[in-house]
Specification:
The chain is α/β, with parallel strands linked by helices. The protein has one domain. 35% of the residues lie in helices and 13% in strands. The protein contains 8 helices and 7 strands; from the N terminus they run βαβββαααβαβαβαα. It starts with a strand and ends with a helix.
Length: 233
């Protein structure tokens, strides 16, 4: 029986590429037992302004010792950033076709007090999966009792073994350093993600901008049609 597994760090309302990978998996391992990458899109993401420009929104964290902590151990700052994020959505997405129904889905997490960044990120991803009607099983890496200090390949194999993976669905960026034979030796097929979805209509934006948070799709397409962007369904 096939068991397709993907692994990726959490992301703040992730972009379509990550949702596509999760959608094509039987199990998605939510990799929260590694350190936060400052320049990656884990506690931040890109949205679109009224002027058609990229705008970065970042979740405030307690930076005391954060470089020596895993994502699951980092504290969140319950400050003004919540209001600023909601204000940005209201100011820049209010006129989008499905603003009201999507805003209703996301607003509650900005009104809730979180202690850990990981919990907020997890909830933002759950909302995204719900909007795009993705029901893939999610397992947090922090619950699998794996030594996160292992070398990258050993860490991946440890996680895959824990969940009984037969196929590892990997991002294409890993082609430069992964050795397919190492996977085959362990009875695991290595498959690279192929993204087939097309560009989508961005509200009053003539020049399409790639790599935005999936919320940009949702505000444009709504709960009924957002999933179609992932595969023409």
């Amino acid at each position: 029986m096939s068991n397709i597994v993907s692994i990726h760090q959490p992301s703040y309302f992730p972009w379509l590429g990550l949702l596509d990978k999760i959608n094509k998996s039987d199990i998605y391992i939510y990799m929260d037992n590694v350190q936060l990458a400052d320049r990656a899109y884990q506690h931040r993401n890109i949205f679109l302004s009224n002027q058609g420009r990229e705008h970065l929104l970042t979740i405030s964290i307690d930076k005391k010792g954060y470089r020596h902590k895993s994502i699951s151990e980092i504290f969140i700052k319950n400050g003004d950033w919540r209001r600023k994020h909601l204000s940005f959505f209201e100011s820049n997405y209010k006129k989008h076709p499905y603003f009201d129904e999507i805003y209703e889905k996301i607003q509650p997490i900005y009104q809730k007090e979180y202690e850990y960044l990981n919990d907020f990120l997890f909830d933002s991803m759950q909302i995204s999966l719900d909007i795009f009607k993705i029901d893939t099983k999610i397992i947090k890496a922090s619950t699998l009792d794996i030594d996160s200090s292992l070398k990258k390949e050993d860490l991946i194999f440890g996680l895959l073994d824990k969940v009984g993976a037969t196929t590892y669905l990997s991002g294409v960026g890993a082609k430069s350093y992964q050795d397919e034979k190492h996977f085959l030796d362990r009875g695991i097929e290595l498959v690279y993600q192929e993204m087939s979805f097309l560009d989508y209509n961005q509200y009053k934006n003539r020049n399409f901008i790639k790599g935005l948070s999936s919320l940009d799709v949702a505000f444009n397409y709504g709960l009924d049609d957002s999933r179609a962007i992932l595969g023409g369904e």
